Amino acid sequence: MAISLTEAAADHVRRSLEKRGKGEGVRLGVKTTGCSGLGYVLEYVDDLLDSDCVFESHGLKVVVDEDSLDFLDGTELDFVREGINEGFKFNNPNVRGECGCGESFSV
Amino acid sequence: MKKKTMSLVQIVEPDAPAASGQPRLAVGIDLGTTNSLIATVREGQVVPLPDEQGCFALASAVRYLQDDSVSVGHDARQCASCDPLNCILSVKRLIGRGVEDVQQLGEQMPYRFQAGESHMPLIETVQGAKSPVEVSAEILKVLRHRGELALDGDLFGAVITVPAYFDDAQRQATKDAATLAGIKVLRLLNEPTAAAVAYGLDRQAEGVVVVYDLGGGTFDVSILRLSQGVFEVLATGGDSALGGDDFDHVVADWIVQQSGSSTDLSPGEQRTLLRMACDLKEALSQAESVTASYGDWQGELTRSRFEQLIEPLVSRSLRACRRAVRDSGIDTGEVTAVVMVGGSTRVPMVRERVAQLFDCQPLTDIDPDKVVAMGAAIQADILAGNQSGNNDLLLLDVNPLSLGLETMGELVEKIIPRNTTIPVSRTQDFTTARDGQTAMALHVVQGERELVSDCRSLARFELRGIPPMVAGAAKIRVTFQVDADGLLSVTAREARSGVEAHVEVKPSYGLSDEAVSRMLEESMAHAEDDRKARGLREQQVNAGRLLETVRVALQTDGDLLDVAERALIDEQLELLEQLASADDQGAIARQVQKVNQATHEFASRRMDATVRRAFAGRQLEEL
């Protein structure tokens, strides 16, 4: 399996990286948070770590650390507009339940 | 029921705390001579963190035991008299100091010292030789552990306070101790600045702040000028052997005298007596009179009698204040705030006398024992990024002494003048002094004087691999960079070849506070001498350069001169060489003129000859 970006997500990541002026790509990860336990992390990548898995999508590097990959494998990152909000959405096949606060999920 | 969709995610900077996430655990640490403290910002409130017994102050005492364990704090201090060699007290007086400095202090300290590598003094203990950095790290480890227990997680980092007069070496050593204790140093902060921050004085537009810090064993006074969010240290002063402990001693002496008991006391009796004296002192901050009992004797100590007893000590601190005011060049009328630090400032008389001196009611609302750690905690919270949008509150400091390079003639070229706001980076271009010079020695010095020998040497390094060029053609760009902690790194780079050399200044030991203030005083007192000395050196360098140029020319083109002409030049050169080694600046300058005149004709003949040589054998059209 792999991690991929939709075209909309790739466009937005590329624009963001250009605006920032530096960075290898984006990092997807999970952290413990919220009421269902896990939350998503999305950050710029400046330095690759030994434990990182790197995927290529639409010519962009998508980086996930080993530990997070168990929870994220198969995820497609999308960029959507919901009402007045714009942002990235994780389409994650591993998710069993999402919490009421919208911050966390469980697998 | 409709399930709420997952909220959308934005890309964030790596390492930045997520907006909805936990704040980073950042602490402020006051690493004191007698006691150390740790504080943090929790839910917007600054709170000092206590140990399991609810005690805030950790005695800055470290004991190395036979069984390889280390005890830190009150228990270690208790053992100072029974195990003096392995109980290290007041290690702050040793950190970043050289063997020579320590030997001077050594008279008051019972430890056995040995010289370690790079001049660092080592203390012999049952667990082997320990450096002041290692001893300080033991104290910091205990505080780190306390912080992690209280905050329930790994510390992100800490702001650690140091006295304003700490130099590069002492700051670096403090930072090393933190690293050794597994603490990431977000920033070193001057103690008086931290106290001012705790009172929120950094949010004022400008003003002059006096910080009066009367601790257990040391007294420090600092005069800071705040302008546009930058604290500039105008002057520091103090007395490294004056503190609240001295108050206890005079009270104890009074008890012995009044009760008529023997002055020949055992160490145990002495401790009991001092403990009692300390209790009486503290009680008198509230009460007008207290009852003392010692053995069969009972007596009354009134506040006014107590004030008579401590009067000479308080006056001593005020004298140091007046000296600092004089050094700073301000008028006491300009003082906008006085901050009280240290437990002994609870004594009402101290407050009154300080208020009188500066004609300004001192700030005393925050616990004077904790105010420094609390200010550091506020700064740590900002640096950890927990106060979003408040980055402009980032405090700036200044470097206490000028930093520069040695140039020809042992003169100092100041690159970063004293009181420049840090962090700072300054660049200056230098060049080679001789034809074909391929290496350059750089000597980094710190101090206010004009001559290298009067300043403190921080580091030496070499730039090699400069392509051979005529003197003055190479362009060597030297960059001095001082980071937010006041630590220096120097880079030299030759522009054409790109060769580069770099040094992080980690001096083996530092200057004492007395040495720093002495150097400052000397620079004022010697300003005139220094200008003269500089002028003389410049003339000497001029003369030397001229001598060398003429001699090289004589070697290659000596045949352009007849014997008489040659003799005249040689005579003038001889005279110049003699004068250059003496110290009459005017005479050297005049002789340089004479040599220039004497060689004028020679120079034009050489020019002609060179031109002829260059054009020889060429057709006019080629030119």
Number of domains of chain B: 4
How many whole angstroms does the radius of gyration of chain A measure? 14 Å
Q: Look at the helices and sheets of chain A and give the structural class.
A: alpha/beta
Q: How is the main sheet of chain A built?
A: 4 strands, mixed
Distance between the termini of chain B: 96 Å
* CATH level-two architecture of the largest domain in chain B: 2-Layer Sandwich
Mean pLDDT of chain A: 79
Query: What sort of overall outline of chain A do the alpha carbons produce when their principal axes are compared?
Result: globular
Spans of at least 5 consecutive residues with low confidence of chain A: none
Tally the helices of chain A: 2
How far the N terminus sits from the C terminus of chain A, by CA atoms, comes to: 17 Å
CATH topology of the largest domain in chain B: Nucleotidyltransferase, domain 5
Q: Strand portion of chain A, in percent?
A: over 45%
CATH architect. name of chain A: Sandwich
Could you give the count of β-strands of chain B? 28
| Amount of helix of chain B | 25-40%
